TrEMBL record:
Residues 37-65 are annotated as: Disordered. Pfam families: YjzC. It comes from Fontibacillus solani. This is YjzC family protein. It comes from the Bacteria.
Amino acid sequence: MGEKTEFEPGDKAPNPGVYTEVGEARSFHTQIKDPKRITMERGETFPDTSNKDRKWKKAEKARVH
């Protein structure tokens, strides 16, 4: 089984890196303008997102339109 790729506020970062907000549905028509980007260290807690329908994802794996 693989590593979890999307994280909710309050989850712990599994690895260091840059994380960005993604829409929960990730539909092509759902655009996020100016998503938050954060730099995390392993074990740090993810902060709140801009709204309840978003999650955090490692920037290199995130699709933001």
